[in-house]
User: Which sequence fits this backbone?
């Protein structure tokens, strides 16, 4: 192992997946919603947090609009 490395000789390149990196956040979600996704996780074998992310990604990709009605 070298004591020093010349980065320019290593020819570094950008990470092609950098735009898809996930960001950890804190969010309050009703327990019934979590239970629903956990049930789906058991049925599919996909972790529930991944399922939530996939669902939200689908909403973004299809530009789904919220339909909220207040009573």
Assistant:
């Amino acid at each position: 192992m070298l004591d020093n490395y010349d980065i320019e000789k290593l020819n570094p390149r950008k990470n092609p997946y950098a735009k898809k990196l996930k960001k950890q956040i804190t969010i309050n979600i009703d327990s019934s919603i979590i239970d629903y996704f956990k049930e789906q996780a058991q049925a599919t074998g996909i972790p529930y947090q991944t399922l939530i992310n996939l669902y939200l990604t689908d909403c973004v990709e299809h530009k789904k609009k919220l339909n909220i009605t207040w009573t």
